[in-house]
Amino acid sequence: MSEEFRRELLSLFLQKNKEFKDFKKLEHISRTMSWSGSRMPILEREKNYLMSLLPLFNSVELLEHKAYVEKQIEYIVESIENEKKKGLFRKQRLSEFNLTKESNE
């Protein structure tokens, strides 16, 4: 299902039901996925999608919803930072491995 379609469905849902407890039960980002290589593109896409939802919460009745989505965005930003650190660590380890390998030859 496209992100645009999911956003439209969420908008319709919020027009009919502003209950936070019901909103919280919805799956806003996919929890089951597989990938090869870096998770960065997936995390960036999730962050951008959630940020695109924020304009839907521009009313007092939806402040709790907005705070919830903003918290999810914060978690993703933290995950992005962790992935960057892992990538730098992997590059450093690979570089060290290559230097060690070259000196042994």
Automatic annotation (TrEMBL):
<protein>
    <submittedName>
        <fullName>Uncharacterized protein</fullName>
    </submittedName>
</protein>
